[in-house]
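Long-time lurker. I teach an intro course on protein structure, and each term I like to show students one example going from raw sequence to a predicted 3D structure in token notation. This year I'd like something fresh instead of my usual example. Would anyone be willing to generate the tokens for the chain below so I can use it in lecture? Attribution to the forum is fine with me.
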Amino acid sequence: MTSGALATRLTSTLTAEPDLGRWRDETPGCAHRNHLNNAGAALMPAAVLRAINDHLTLEAHIGGYEAAEERVSQTDSAYESIAGLVNANARNIAITSSSTVAFIQALSTIDFAAGDVILTSRCDYTSNQLHYLSLARRHGVRIIRAEDLPEGGVDPDSVRAIARQTRPRLVAISWVPTNSGLVQDVGGIGEICEDLALPYLVDACQAAGQLPIDVSRLRCDFLSATARKFLRGPRGIAFLYVSDRALARGDHPLYVDMRGATWTGPDALSLVDDARRFEDWEFPYALVLGLGAAVEYASSIGIPRGGGRALALATYLRDRLTTIDGARVLDRGRHRCAIVTVDIRGWNATHLVAELRRRHINSSASLGWYALIDMAEKHAESAVRLSPHYYNTLEEVDAAVEALREIVTGRG
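-- Reply from a regular --
Happy to contribute to a lecture. Here you go:
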């Protein structure tokens, strides 16, 4: 399909959404910004703001502990909503302060020793790679990265071959890396891990809210995700899915605290029987309720529906960016999502992002070291990351493209 034909088809599809006006009315930030940084932190809908503010007001009036006790049923409902999002039960959900913390809590269940292997991909999230490198430095862990498919994304055959040879202590894959619209085959990797009885950790930070999640199909032991990105929740809150298999094994974080265990004797502890063993006692209840409201809002729209529109906007955006002289869209893979990265010859992404923000257009910069291997292979030092969501419009996408064109041609 030609570029013009693709744009025409997508334009017709994207302008036919009858609920777009309501979605934007329910999103206060739409009145102030062209927000194309949903892979960073999406604009919260009014329902999420109300949930947070109502609980903070209650805390201010009656006290923090007392407010938590009064809102037990609402907190329980948040767990149920999150569990429904990933096709699990509430007992399998732990709430943490960030997706990185959730990931670390899962990582810390393993007593790594010198020579143990962590098998991951070449497009894993930066912080995850730093965790592995720290484990390598402290404990002598070996990091092995599976090969990519020719079109991009981890090669399941490579994972299987390495796993059979090395018997890794952990397989860990980022579903969607932060620097690219690539969607990796985490389901295919899950089949391999199940066949070989290997612990499996999925980073779904960028997937939650734009891709349907069914942990039974992923066959993972752990899955970490955040509220602030495509789920449109607040910052500072996230969740971890923990499988029944992992709970039955007795998996628990290295530093379990009094929310996750009971001190039963001078030299003994007893773990709680569900995923709360991965939580901390100090708990931001207002944000928990905000996360619950965000999940309920996303579910009311439908992840396939909202994520499908976001993907269509991203596809349209990639097509339009190719009309800018010197622009190179960097996204690869058999499957792509609503994250678009573009390198513009002769321009540093940080400067371009700042110039876009001056025009009230939100984006972010993906720097080379954020995805050292992937960016080096693409010969890119930085990229502008634009990430539309279902509440964005074609006009906003076009405005961002024209603003970039003006900046690089010196007209703006």
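Some talking points for your students: The longest strand covers residues 170-174. The chain has two domains: 3-44+301-409, 48-300.
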